[in-house]
Amino acid sequence: MRNKNYVFTIATAFLLTLGACGFSPVYNSNTGVESVTVKQAFSYVDIAPIPNKIGVDLRNELLDMLHVSTGQSVPHFTLVVKTPSEHIKQTGIDRDATTTREQLRLKTSAKLISKDTGRVLFDRDFVSLTNYNILPSEYSTLIAQEDARDRAMRQIADDIKTHLALYFSNNDLAGSQ
Question: Cα-atom radius of gyration of the chain, to the nearest Å?
Answer without folding.
Answer: 22
